[in-house]
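Entry 14. Structure prediction run on the chain below.
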Amino acid sequence: MFAKPLIACTTIIMLLIAGCTDLNHRGQSKELSDMESKIAYQPDVFLTDVVNDHFNITATINYRNKENVEHIIYEMFIEEPKVKMEQLQMSFHLHPQMLSKIGTTTIFESNVIFDNLPTIAPHGTSTRASLFRAFLLDPSKVDQETLEIYTDMYVKLSYQVDREEYVHYFKLNAEPSDELVNVLHNTAMTLN
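Output returned:
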């Protein structure tokens, strides 16, 4: 007697979960497609002047070696908001050639898959937001080209201010840690 309603409820819940996951996946795929298309065909949309009336943006790259597994960690920061920024979507893409330089199948990261996007405000509970990703560093792939491109980060930000949508594209020159600079330069010199 209770089996049919229980099966029906379980099926509905599974479909809802699968549907949300599919919507999130489509959102991330759309974001990735937009970034890759602009990098390839409209690179001029990515501003290198990061001065903005609504926020400050920076990016860093760090190195981690834990149990002989090396990682390169990219992180972008949105700080010092001058206005309340709601539904903040953050995405970044590394230089396309980095795909062959690190151990991964994608060099893209985004928070569009999250159900609750952050809100930051000058005097709110959250005054900054960040997005990061660690990639496996394959020392055998580090070469002179890597040293020339690894700091390039293509960034897309979308957010709302008083229900008005804003979208910005930036090409950042991420600030590497001294440790990472030394590791990459020493590795590139050893391999060449």
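Residues 1-23 have pLDDT under 50 and may be disordered.
Filed with the rest of this week's runs.
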